[in-house]
Amino acid sequence: MSVHASRAILAGVLTCVYTPQLFAQEKPERAGQAEIALQGYYIGGSQQPILDTSGVAIKLQSFFPKLGLLQVNLEGYSGQNRFRPGDNYVDLSNLIWKSTRWNLSGGDFRIPTTLTTFHFNNIIYPEISVRGGRVTARRGRQKYTVFYGLETLQAGPRIPFRVSPGQNVLGASFQYAASEKLEFGVQFLNLTNGQSTNQYAATLKLPGREFRAANIASAQISYKPLKKVTFFAEVNTSSVQRPAATEPDASFEVPVSRKQDWTREAAAVAGVQWDTERVTVRANYVRQGAFYMPIAGFFLGDRQGPYAELRYRLFSRLELYASTSRYENNLARRADLPTYHSRSETAGANLRLPARFSASGSLTLLKFRSQGQEVFQNSNTKNQLWTATLSKSIYKHNLRLTYREIKLSLISGSQKQVSKEVEDTFQWGPFVMGGAVRLDTTRTDQMHNTLFGRGSVQVRMKRVTAYGFMETGRDLLNESVFATNSLNSTTLGATVRIGHGWNLLGEAFRSSLTSQLNPAHIFLLQGQGVEVPSTLGGLNQWSFFVRMTKDIRWGKGLERSTIDQFAAESKPRNRVCGGVCLRHR
Description:
mainly beta; 26-stranded antiparallel beta barrel; two-stranded antiparallel ribbon; 3 helices; 31 strands; 7% helix; 64% strand; disordered N terminus; disordered C terminus
């Protein structure tokens, strides 16, 4: 258990102990709520022992009219005879002092890497999860943030505890909204990689991105000179201290005498958006080196190329869209790393027809070329995907027909997959039921036809919400050239409002997956003297999740309107400074 988590839990316990005494001194307009949860997650299978993660979570929100909004979250779990902390934090927001609004956070919190309004979907700016401390100050249109801590990552789906990859994060940012048209911000990050004993840290090391420490400075600007036009730009510079060649994990040929050398790298993003009622155009160009935002658990950099998309509403019932991109990696041109070139084009349309019919279709072309590795030396693939959908609402039914065709041009030859699917969703009172059947056809040297089905049911009553999902069949869409997959999965769950603030959630999941060698290639491999079993692997796994919660409210309860009202009433007033009236928001 880390020092930051221990301090956060101690502060939370003290807050829970002394909160009732504070309430007794407050005015009747005080408000707050709390949630206490007990939960357990269990997973097992035919080839693995039963793993369990169970524990307690306490979440408290208390509103003090003269102080601000206090939030405390405590999570502690036990799994495989080890204590594992979850999200533990104490956060005080909207504290007014010196005509400035302060937010104080200790424990687990999130740091965004986007500093202005952003409009592009092909560029990702993740949030950094940090366990440490953060101070945020807002004064007028200005926002200042300082933070420090240890980066954390969620261990997995349904697994509430967090693990650390051993990366320390120190940073500061400044954001300024000069007007509704102009925003800009700057951010500085210092990342240092230490030693981590958890099993996830080793999997996060990527070739060409090992480093001891990195200093990253970035600036972003969003400018809207016209009502329909927006420009965005980012510049980024990184200084990275690479590991010495004598270290076990070193991947750079750096002389010992230069092991303290720092490598500098620059990156830039530029984009424009034009948005009207009928036409939307977005275009950008990115150049990001391997050490662009080298945050553990993410791979954001090492690419360059243009991207553009267009949406045109020809009339109220018809919309056309298209997009294109062209990217390449390995900007440092390292001989020991592969170089990939990708190019994609997509075009499609959405159409609303009379009699409550709707149709859509799209075509995607993808070209991929790789160089630099012996296995994929000068390899080229040309793939094509096109999809057509027709849907119709009839009484309480929603019918949908889908046709999908995939053409793959691979090293071993060409392959064609065709899918035809019929789906119906029916709603009757509190019940919502759905089902689909898909016929998949694969054509290589031989033709194979398989059926894949799925069904779902959901019921909502006064206190109970229950649901179930089922999938079964041979899934050709997730099939590779060398393996075929047979999948059977079932999910059952329910939420029950017991009363007096008590709620119960339970979910059970069972899945079996059998992966077999593709019959189209078994004779090819065995003809080359390779002894290959027909069954490559299998998975038979189950899991069960249960969570019991208790909601507690005091005062007027904590609604969003209460917070907004407090923010308006506690807003710093105008003050005269040097004969100029300044408003601090």
